[in-house]
Amino acid sequence: MSHIRQPLDARAVSLMLLLCILWGGQQSVIKLVADDMAATLQISLRSGIGLILIAGFMAWRGISFAMHKGPWRAGIIAGLLFGFEFLFIGEGLRYTTASHMAVFLYTAPIFTALGLHFLIPEERLSKKQWLGISLCFVGIAVAFLGGFAQPTISNKILWGDFLGLMAGFLWGSTTVVIRVTGLNRIPAAQTTLYQLVAAFVILLLAAMLSDQMTVNWTPELITALAAQGIVIAFFTLLVWFWLLSRYLASRLASFTFLTPLFGVAFGVLLLDDPLDIAFVLGAALVIIGVSVVNHPKSR
């Protein structure tokens, strides 16, 4: 197979739009059935489902399970970062809305860009990208300060927003670890295996220790878990890695800003999430900033 990445064609654009829609809706799906199963436990079980499916995929494709022969130290670090990222998402969704979580979580590309700027010379940020990062952080400040200024915004929501922002930081850090270590030279399925194992164990322990193991098995919950495990934790990851193997990563990343837009839309439509003016303005600045940072540099 050729290692030359190609510009986006109609197939790549269609698949990226599908991924953005699916990723944007996952927080709302978790919140929809949170009364039947805690978000933290949901994410743990979905990681377990994804883990089984990824392991089956590796066996089918003949990908080695001998993880100790590769960069296992980096794999453990990436797995821990991934696991705690989703722990923050699960806990954050207990306090904040799906719309808020979608916006703060998808600040991750900003943290990735900052980390790579200092670690990889060819990933230095341009002046335009620094402007995008500045817009993003101004947007975060507006969203938070606007919440403090409004008596209708509870401290619980602000705490959930903060956990969402920390999840974005950990997601960005995970990407940096994968980019600068030997993990970028092993099959993507192996890296995903590290991440799903860590997420399953960490979130399951967290759910047990925080007494979040109560489950009310309903058709809606079963459907949501199946969708999260099969579609989010397995299908979207395989499609994403397939796209990365064939198309220019910078062009694919330019679609990232669409995901929080879909996330906010799903939150409003499915959960009647309220949107105050401070959050709307801050979210707009964050999304614009992310799109500027991810836009390919001019040659």
From TrEMBL:
The chain crosses the membrane at residues 43-60, 72-89, 101-119, 131-150, 162-180, 192-209, 221-245, 252-271, 277-294. Residues 12-144, 158-294 form the EamA domain. Pfam families: EamA (PF00892). The keyword Zinc-finger does not apply. Belongs to the EamA transporter family. This is DMT family transporter. Its main location: membrane. It is found in: Membrane. It comes from the Bacteria. It is a multi-pass membrane protein.
